[in-house]
Amino acid sequence: MNTIELIQILPKAELHLHIEGTFEPELMFEIAKRNGIDLPHDSVESLKDTYEFENLQEFLDIYYQGVNVLQTEQDFYDLTWAYLQRAKADNVVHTEIMYDPQSHTERGIDFEIAINGIHRALSDAQSQLGISSFLILSLLRHLSEEECLATLEQAKAHMDKFDAIGLDSSELGNPPEKFINLYAMADEMKLLKVAHAGEEGPAEYVWSAIDQLNIDRIDHGNRCLEDDKLVDYIIKKDLTLTVCPLSNLKLCVVDDLKQHPIKVMLDKGLNATVNSDDPAYFGGYVNDNFNAITEALELSEQDIVQLVKNSFTGSFLPESHIQEHLKAIDKILA
Ligand code: ADE
Ligand code: ZN
100 — phi, psi (to 5°)? Predict the structure, then answer.
């Protein structure tokens, strides 16, 4: 079996995925048409031509434009269902999806519309595709803490539909400590907690996400490697990093996949995982990410198996489910 076949055959979990970042141009045009929205591009190709980014902010500006097309509960269902089918093709059996409620409420879409559409697709995925999932309500860090607190307050009526909070959007200038009260409120609500940290922001942001927000998992975390004490601390705390190789390449976090730090992370003993972040914009879903780093970094079968196992041990699944998934992997390998 070659590595492409190995990557395909292994069941895996995806832990870092923005559902709005799975909005493929073809579906965007279809939904825009049915909602009577004129896109500023006349074809899928000319829209795709704009997907060249020099940094995170250039990407976010285009990503928030795309989101405007989503209006109805069915739109959110269709978006989520399309991702889940694509995930199924990559043998994803569990996914922990982020969505940005504020990028919808800020433009006048009721809170219920997005969460209900996404939730319905996730329920159908469990029954029809055998994919389990958690939903992470991700707050936009370029907004004020007061606005994020108000959104979390609104979310209280939907506690049955989500499991964790996250923090995304423009990292530089919006450090984790801006959101101490938000994460304290999430604690009171017994939510799990993740945050993007160390994607563009410095190692200090990873420190403060851990110590001041008390996060359960780190999204990206690349820049932790600039601080050996921090690396030791993350290992001691047994925190998983949700690493996104093609995203890092597209957003110029790394210049070349051959310099991608994921192999170094593994060698240092960090629980790194492979994820697709915003696959419609970054050129690939989770298996594409695995294949790209396997080729660029000449990963061994053992590295690939470790990364896939980390996706389960780093998930928020109950321990018994994690063990079942790990056993299933060992059975396939045997
Ligand atoms: N929102 C969607 N994708 C993101 C990323 N990679 N970093 C921060 N915010 C995001
Ligand atoms: Zn992300």
Answer: -105, 90
